[in-house]
UniProtKB/TrEMBL annotation:
Name by which UniProt lists this protein: Glycoside hydrolase family 5 domain-containing protein
UniProt record similarity statement: Belongs to the glycosyl hydrolase 5 (cellulase A) family.
One GO MF term: hydrolase activity, hydrolyzing O-glycosyl compounds
Origin: domain of life: Eukaryota
UniProt keywords, alphabetically: Carbohydrate metabolism, Cellulose degradation, Glycosidase, Hydrolase, Membrane, Polysaccharide degradation, Transmembrane, Transmembrane helix
Residue ranges annotated for the Glycoside hydrolase family domain, each copy included: 171-441
Ranges for region Disordered: 548-576
């Protein structure tokens, strides 16, 4: 393990406190796990129902695609966030690529048409509601629709379209600062945020080929980039404490990573332990999401490779990579209860598989052998067994044919431990998840909105997550505004997010400076005082909130081509960028760009 002290000289947040102090204090982190369940600092269960929203990882320099559509419903970031809240999601997965932090931010502050709140609310009404207990609301509440000033929506203006400015306060100084701003805004709106290192493309054919972010191949550089990012997030948003999930490596097989290491590439075990050792002192309340790898032969090629049973590992020759080193290496770590296993489950439209995609074809056996057993029996070592929490970090479907429907229903039954084949005793309930994705330009899954204007909700997908319909009898406990049990997210933090989009009132009588101040002003004094107090408590080591410790070369050409196609555009650039991606998507272009950006990052 590297002993490098990341971020030295930045601030004292990087200084590790003795594990004994943590044990003496005995306080739970604000977000942690107990007995294979995600819980809060009081031990109450936490159910994360999230959605991925990509863009920062693919050159868009923002969540995609704020250029689509014809009004603020799809073009204004804060309005889209409001819509996500009304659908019942309480978390957002934000894919990011360190190399793309070097991209110049594209300007999304633009003139746009602003519909009245009631019109925006009307876009959230499903054509037919599930046969489930309903809420009493006819429309979602418009009390926090992000439009200013509220007095504008009176009289005739209440039903009028107004000229306005979308994304008026979106930072334009750097892509990195914009990403941090988005993280802060989402947390202030009450979301959990999954910071997800998510390169486009595959690097499995060799270093520098196809993946557009190769910082991971320099562990010291990569861990340092993680450390600096989280340090800056907490500096700007101390309220992020207890609200972050850190998804270190999206689908490690894409990088050719194995648990043992190969071909000069560090082992997945060493990479994970090195980064957690560095980040836990500054992020003791973060959940560390771990994706598996090196087990493609077991059909565990989307971050699912956690198999440790010798009988399972030896099914095929040569034996596949063994995840035991990770569980042994983290057994006595003070952050072991911050670890959450984060597999991805996909159906034939993405995986290309003609077997193993439904219960009668071995679906549950694959899930159990490569991941599920860890949520039930657990990993056994030193005469004890530890059960791990799991979160389904990616899954999605277009539901375009019977295979997709069979696969999806199998996944839902597995997560719910439904009576029947799914209740096999080999896995626990999976109650937290991130659906892929909001963006509709994702191959094999589509998104939560239509692919033309990014405006109309794909209600079939909402039905799949709520259940209660003839096609989707069972769901995943998602509660949008129209179902009983909907829980509005409460805004958090010390500074209320400034509203947007800004409505342009001709007779407002404000100077440009006054308009700017109206947008930018917020009560930073309280935030500063709270930050100073938090810093003082942290610096003296006041009861840190953390618990006591309780390459595969056998990939077939068809598997490889399917994986490359999926990684090439799923999570890639927005629709408007795809033509550029396809024209420039050569190995040489990616290798040159990645090398240049890594060199620039190292010099910085």
């Amino acid at each position: 393990m590297s002993s490098t002290h990341y971020g030295a000289g930045r601030n004292s947040f990087g200084a590790a406190r003795p594990p004994q102090l943590v044990r003496w204090c005995g306080a739970l982190p604000l977000l942690t796990t107990q007995n294979g369940k995600i819980v809060d600092g009081d031990g109450n269960p936490v159910f994360i129902h999230g959605i991925a929203w990509f863009g920062f990882n693919g050159g868009a320099t923002m969540t995609g695609n704020l250029s689509a559509g014809f009004d603020a419903v799809s073009q204004d970031f804060k309005t889209v966030v409001w819509r996500i809240k009304q659908l019942g999601f309480n978390a957002v997965r934000l894919p990011v690529s360190f190399s793309h932090f070097a991209d110049d931010p594209k300007n999304f502050t633009m003139e746009c048409t602003v519909p009245p709140p009631a019109s925006v609310a009307a876009t959230m009404v499903p054509p037919k509601k599930p046969v489930l207990p309903l809420s009493n609301a006819a429309l979602p509440s418009v009390a926090d629709v992000p439009f200013i000033p509220p007095e504008a929506w009176t009289g005739g203006l209440a039903t009028s379209m107004l000229p306005g400015t979308c994304n008026a306060d979106l930072p334009n100084d750097s892509t990195r600062n914009r990403y941090i701003w988005v993280v802060k805004y989402l947390i202030n709106e009450g979301f959990y945020v999954n910071i997800d290192f998510h390169s486009i493309g595959m690097a499995g054919e060799g270093l520098g080929l196809k993946a557009d972010d190769n910082t991971l191949y320099n562990t010291t550089l990569w861990v340092g980039l993680w450390y600096d990012l989280l340090s800056d997030v907490f500096e700007v948003a101390p309220e992020a404490k207890g609200r972050l999930l850190i998804d270190f490596i999206n689908e490690p097989d894409g990088y050719g990573l194995t648990w043992e290491g190969s071909k000069g590439i560090d082992s997945l075990t060493d990479i994970y332990i090195t980064v957690m050792d560095a980040l836990w002192p500054i992020c003791p309340d973060c959940l560390f999401l771990i994706e598996g790898g090196g087990q493609v032969k077991l059909l565990a090629n989307w971050g699912n490779g956690f198999a440790t049973d010798p009988a399972v590992l030896s099914k095929l020759k040569p034996k596949v990579s063994d995840a035991s080193s990770f569980f042994i290496g983290t057994w006595d770590k003070p952050y072991v209860n911050q670890i959450v296993l984060a597999p991805h489950f996909y159906c034939p439209a993405v995986s290309g598989a003609n077997f193993g995609y439904k219960p009668s074809l071995g679906q549950y056996q694959i899930y159990n052998e490569t991941f599920g057993y860890l949520t039930s029996k657990g990993f056994c070592y030193k005469g004890k067994c530890r059960v791990y929490a799991g979160i389904l970090d990616e899954f999605g479907s277009t539901f375009e044919d019977q295979k997709e429907l069979d696969c999806w229903r199998g996944i839902v039954d597995y997560m719910n431990n439904a009576p029947g084949p799914a209740r096999d005793g080999w896995h626990g309930n999976i109650t937290s998840w991130f659906y892929w994705s909001w963006n509709p330009d994702s191959i094999g899954t589509g998104g939560m909105v239509d692919p033309i204007n990014w405006r109309t909700i794909e209600w079939l997908k909402m039905d799949a997550m709520t259940g209660g319909t003839p096609r989707f009898r069972a769901g995943l406990r998602l509660k949008p505004w129209y179902l009983a049990g909907f829980q509005p997210l409460n805004r958090t933090g010390n500074s209320a997010p400034s509203p947007a989009p800004v409505i342009q009132l001709a007779n407002a009588g404000l100077t440009p400076l006054e308009k700017y101040l109206m947008i930018a002003a917020s009560p930073f004094a309280g935030c500063a005082v709270a930050s100073m107090l938090l810093f003082a408590l942290w610096a003296v080591g006041w009861c840190e909130r953390a618990p006591p410790p309780e390459p595969d070369d056998g990939e077939s050409p068809s598997e490889k081509s399917t994986a490359e196609a999926r990684h090439g555009l799923r999570g890639g650039m927005p629709t408007s960028e795809n033509s550029i991606f396809l024209q420039w998507g050569t190995d040489e272009w990616y290798a040159a760009e990645a090398a240049e950006k890594v060199a620039s990052a190292a010099q910085a």
